[in-house]
Amino acid sequence: MRKSFEKFLARQEALARQYGEAYEEKQHNRGKLTARERIEFLFDEGTFEEVDAYSPSATTSFGKTVRSYGDGVITGFGNINGRQVFAYSQDFNVQGGSLGSVHAAKIIKVQDMALKTGSPVVGLIDSGGARIQEGVASLAGYAGIFRRNVLASGVIPQISVIMGPAAGGAVYSPALTDFIFMTAATSYMFVTGPNVVKQVLNETISPEELGGASVHAVKSGVADFVFNDDENTLRGVKMLLSYLPSNNIENAPYLATDDPADRIEESLRDLVPEDPDKPYDVRNIIRLITDKGKFLEIAENYAPNIIIGLARFGGYVTGIVANQPQVMAGTLDMNSSVKAARFINFCDSFNIPILTLEDVPGFLPGADQEHAGIIRHGAKLLYAYTRATVPKITVVLRKSYGGAYIVMNSKGIGGDYNFAWPTAEIAVMGPEGAIAILYHKELAAAEDPVALKKELLAQYREEVANPYIANEKGFIDEVIDPSVTRLKIIRVLKSLEKKSVSLGIWAPQINLGMQKPWFT
What we know:
Strands 10, 11, 12, 13, 14, 15, 16 and 17 form an 8-stranded mixed β-sheet that branches. This protein is of the alpha/beta class. It has 20 helices and 17 strands.
């Protein structure tokens, strides 16, 4: 027994030597934590259980075979915020974190166990891509990971955290997951790197310019969250997980609050300007109605004319979709439509109710939008809202015109409760456009067209666009005092706790309603 135990200890010591001071300094000098430090920071202290720590790299016949424990990735499970999570952390210090067959097999094992146990999976990515000397075996490894990303989609939350390079085929696994975090200055993602761009297009571009965090947070929309360093990025991951259920059967974590459900906010009555063309920040409304004013915004810098994120009402998690009048007057364009649709689909998959705060004058006009496919992309938002079976609530704050009225969770596409503030304007089109079409001859012939136009605009708002007409016709359930918005939302969410929906007579066996009551 003694000899066998000595062998056991010697093996542990050999693994510890692999992660010595020189190893740590190498990564710290790059401004990054080591793969093991990232794991320790992410998980609750003392809960992480590593698996396959001693797996050796595969032997190759071409190039140099580097023998190392773990093959450049740390894998295992533990608790984050007291709940079980599986994770893998790629180690750039070991063969550049490149993915070989053993490396891939370890990640696949973690993905399979996460799916079997109904646990979230987090990938900490810091890798040079496929291991060249292993050839097709490394490519097959990526294929296996991608396949499991797809199989787990909508079943367990999947989070990718880019903490270094992610290039070539390596970017497709993050793209298949639910959320992507990036670390500013040290992370980047691209399918073809700067060297390839230089060779093929004769253009010189840096990794940061091509696929850095700022590019993907603002221009491409690939990154949902960007933080300045490894520690804050990992804190962000823990914060996001605190809002998410472990799988699509469970409900999101309840968090008791002393914020009263019947809290009245009289300041809400004055937040929407009297002038319908004057902008305001819808975030101010969100902060006044959510528990303790907390709101985790997602993709903050991409398509900012629509806001998405997670908050709590009475302790229960709710997804929020809100038009932002401060940007492009809150109009819907291609990017905002796709951004919101993807978030709605996520909420629907994981039993998270959806609150829509609406102030939208319509879809963004112009040849650029039409030629690039606004019809197709706008339809994605319409489809997502219509298909979603979780509780769906809408509050019309101000403008709600035309096709945008329909798309933003109107009664006709399945909104459960639709409220409006007294400032709401609901119509086929805005007053300006309507008057120009209906009274163009009268305006052209008028002695004082300005005065006539002003009179007609007031008449249109009174007889057509005011919310009371929509209320009387049943398209709005209630016109409410803005100060009681929080109270109304919490009450109707509770009323929908047993909502269950079957998607049509052609698929009566499919029930995509929540697996268990929401308020439990």
